[in-house]
Amino acid sequence: MNFIRTLRGDISPTELGFTYSHEHLVCRPPYWVEKGEDDLLLDDPAKTKLEMTDVKQAGVQTIIDATAVDYGRDVEAVATLSEETGIHIVGTAGFNKSFLWKAAIPKHLQGVLGYRGTFEEWIEASEINELTEFVVREVEEGLEGTQFRAGQVKFGTGYNRITPLEEKTIRAVARAHHATKAPVHSHTEVGTMALEQIEILRQEGVPLEFVSFGHMDRNPDSYVHEQVARTGAYLSFDGIGKIKYAPESTRIECILELVKRGYEDHVLVSGDTARKSYYSHYDYGLGLQHIVANWVPRFQEEAERAGFDGERLIRKFFVENPARCFAWKE
Taking a C-beta distance cutoff of 8 angstroms, is the pair 2, 75 a contact? Predict the structure, then answer.
């Protein structure tokens, strides 16, 4: 039997509904706290709740919260938001990228991790099997010692490189997948190193159909996209609304190119809305509702012009593909 693990318990994939596949809801990343980067701190659950209420009214039923332990999760706050809004939320175990690990481990996590110092020092001092055991605990027992269990496991790498410590966490997360069967998510910095990550996952025997690769639209290279899709993995186009990286026309062209090449079953779409200035209730940004309110109608129109059934593709990207990607296959 397949299921999706949410913070409120396991549900059937058919209950997942319209899904944002990569977001951040309440988080205070220690690295950005130390740098004084207030824009990168989503630290007001009441404002996040207003955003979630907006998208709930617009038809969004599930949000995948991709916030790992090194990105300043507030597990209890996010779980409460899920209860109060009725939106399913999938939590994330694992790690992000290496430059974030230079931050000191917050006091409330020192007991959970059994370590004082920086995240980098903790990962350096730990054996791969110890990191694997930590990820498995977050999946099977609860995130950061809470009762709320993770629904996916995550690793990440930097721009055009994979450091030894990042490789260590990839292997730890791969082994946690084998122990739990949890879906796997990858952070790729600016859409780079996905193919190199795939080689490490293959060494660890991870079936690629369990894996989604984030930020693939940051590298609008259809050749690379096809190389990832042909492994059976999912590609997350999660920069919707971030015109500073690329216009929406570029993202839509890349998605439609994958459709043309027969890979429509491998596309996920979201916003990675991780700044106050991206949110409408924190600041005056486009907000979580931008995707469903503005981008979806535009994509449907462009898809129709290209000869495709836009409504069917939207259902594929936001309902059918997430229901497969985030499912645990017993």
Answer: no
